[in-house]
Amino acid sequence: MTQPQIYTLVALAIYAITMALIGCLSFGKSKTLDGFLIGGRNIGAWATAFAYGTTYFSAVVFVGYAGQHGWNIGLGAIWIGIGNAVLGCLLSWLLFANKTRKMTKKLNARTMPDYFEKRYGSTGMKILASIIIFVFLVPYSAAVYKGLGSLFSAVFPGVETWVWMLIIACLTAIYLVAGGYVATAYTDLVQGIIMLVGVVCLVVAVLNHETVGGIGGLLENLGNFQSLPDDPNPITGDQLTNIFGGSSFKFLCFNIMLTSFGTWGLPQMIGKFYAVKDTAAIKRGTIISTIFCTVIGCGAYLIGSSSRLILGGQLPEGGVDSVIPAVLMEVLGNGTLGIILLAIIMILLLSASMSTLEAVVLTSASAVAVDLIPAIRKKPTKPEHQMILTRILCLVFVACSFLFATRNIPIIVSLMSFSWGLVSGCFIGPYLWGLFSKKITKIGAYAGILSGLLTVGGATLVITLTDGFSSAAAKSPEMGVAAMAISMIVVPLVSAFTKNSKADEARVNEIFECYKEN
Q1: What's the predicted TM-score (pTM) here?
Q2: Most buried residue, 14, 344, 352, 398, by most Cβ within 10 Å?
């Protein structure tokens, strides 16, 4: 066993024990359904802020987005990180956190489908939202397992990828099933600290690499960069240093909008606001979360933009998804300090992915246990039974994600590309307008969900039939942005031509009284 492998195994063992202990210690605070799903609405600023940030950024940001966009766009890709911090984090907290906390508390809503049912008085909308969450979030988690397993296999080439995926699945299941949201919130706090330390160390190591030469050297060397003669997609130094993305400006804008505004409608992100303790915690959490997202987002894309220099312009054998792993091995693969940092970075990527996985699994499990099954049965279900069922379904979804990830099923990876835009496109209009306007009707909310679903689904079908599924996958950012925009327009437009019943109007007026309460 090599020295990097030994250090990584030791770090992994310490990390696993810490996460398991947090899960066990949190068990006492998750014995009720409210405690298990939203931490009893008593989570503080630091835990909520880090939970939001770590759920936002998984290993996909580093291994996928930062590697691909940094390689193909250059320094302009850093705008994605800035957009995520300002639009996806800061604005989301400022505009929606307090209203979400107050309204969901008034409605006693624990999940996004639960919010839709009680805000719009529609069990059918609750069922539809639950199905959308189940279909499009669980395959996403399977793809994250697979990507993270592949990353660890690069450091441990003698170990099969499925072994790492099994370890990750078991660790996620232990602390999530034991401690519920409380455990995820506090493990996210630990994971967030690891991510911050890891990203800062990696940025320093990358900038100090001989091919980069600091910030000044990065600008100068990228400006003088010339592609290799056999490069099938040559790129110029002017493109790599163009702060606005050069020829990739349009592509860059769509990715900023998708990955930033998309958080406004994702249930695993919005759910953090259900659990935050009070207004004071929201004010502190806004600052903490924005700083966290700025460091992680900008740091990841800065590392990606330096990849052509570090790798000598040679794209790794695995393509753009192998760019960041190759950079890690090149920058940190030699020397004791570098090897220690490599172990920290591997735990960083594990932390980033597990925080996203736990949020997705909990969201998916609750959608079925708390929302879908009781709505279909049409019989009251005791909270303790729902909580037990949610724990069981968390195990089931972790197992299913693992099994799916071990199979070579292309549709899983493809669904990952669409899930972000489709889920947010369905929910963003009904969710946001429902917070701000009494005039939004049930029909208007339904129209918003269906418009998002049909925009992505219809466009995917048409493009697939004409140009193939790969072309549709390449257009997923545009589809997601279009779905979100259409949902935001359709909801108030349809509501303007429809009416709520007098009983619904009285109920909605009562709901909006929550904003007058402390």
Answers
A1: 0.86
A2: 352
